[in-house]
Amino acid sequence: MKSLLFALAFAAPSQAGLRFGCSTLSIQRLDPVVEPGNVPSGHVHQIVGGNAFNATMQGDIAEQATCTTCPFSEDFSNYWTAVMYFKHENGSYHRVPIYPNAQIGDNTAAVQGGMTIYYTQKDFNSNGNEKITAFKPGFRMTVGSPTTSTLDAAKGHHGLRYVCLDNALTRFPELPDFPTKKCPGGIMTVHHFPSCWDGKNLDSPDHQSHMYNTVKEAFTPAGPCPASHPVKMPQLAYETLWNTTMFANMWPKDGSQPFVWSYDDRKGYGTHGDYIFGWKGDSLQKAMDSSCMFQACGNGRPLKSQTAAQQNKCSIKNTVTEETQGWLKELPGQKMSMQ
Ligand SMILES: *[C@@H]1O[C@H](CO)[C@@H](O)[C@H](O)[C@H]1NC(C)=O
Ligand SMILES: *[C@@H]1O[C@H](CO)[C@@H](O)[C@H](O)[C@H]1NC(C)=O
Ligand SMILES: *[C@@H]1O[C@H](CO)[C@@H](O)[C@H](O)[C@H]1NC(C)=O
């Protein structure tokens, strides 16, 4: 009896899950994954994470960065998405501000803008008794594509969704495209990445085929990994909360929804995210092997933490010096657009 209980205790799933708010590192036209070396890249991004971020970054960035805008101080990864703009009837554009995730509380309420990052195992409650293998130095990937141009294709990207927020805590329903009505609490965008790895390649020509996507909607558990991509990695996801309040009285008279991505996408079908792994040493693996949840993973149990003030202090100098805020005549880099 005793040995049976012992065995059950060890068979119990571990629960590790990370959820943390990173403040903004930079907002500019750079894209070291899809357009390495292009200064500027095609469209504006909002980037959080370590300060090794640049147009040509390569290798183990945890060894190159000296600070991070994320609360776990060994996480020098970079996380980014496109930027949302408001298009005024008069033809001008204005960047939509980002606000921090109220669910996280603690120091995160004090961070500037940024994103909420998740590394889960299966869902919020278990890893399904599977070994989760952390990403390796040099690993990078993208999810979604700015060239996605149909609603059906957008629906097929189950991990890429929009939520029209009644308040900061609204999470459903999830939509495949921009909400068409005013959202009192703003708009949340969600990017769930694939979690099945081919076990060999740190990247691939399209930045996606070394991974296999079994993600389902919301935070429901992803499907099993196929034989071609057998290695289960952490389920990475981003949430961004866009504060649309300042535009509430400026909606177009014809009632059309006025938000547009920085690559000039008014439907939202092309929503996408980018990731470069940068956790120091085996820190992410240690977290995935433990049973801590969310903030409880910090302060050395097992991850090292830093304060919101330290997060906010980390930044980089923009290499692309152009206006991305205020009222703009056009979206940066989108002059040729016919939309
Ligand atoms: C960008 O980072 C790489 C290392 O990843 C470094 O070799 C290069 O000098 C950096 N470029 C600039 C412009 O700082
Ligand atoms: C459009 O409207 C905004 C908000 O009132 C204003 O600040 C901006 O200058 C206007 N743009 C043009 C081209 O009139
Ligand atoms: C959203 O923006 C408005 C100003 O337009 C500001 O008053 C409000 O505090 C912001 N909300 C959050 C949650 O940051």
Automatic annotation (TrEMBL):
Signal peptide: 1-16
Domain DUF1996 span(s) in chain numbering: 31-279
Keywords: Signal
Keyword match Transport: no
Pfam family, any one: DUF1996
The keyword Signal is assigned to this record: yes
Full protein name: DUF1996 domain-containing protein
Organism the protein comes from: Neoarthrinium moseri
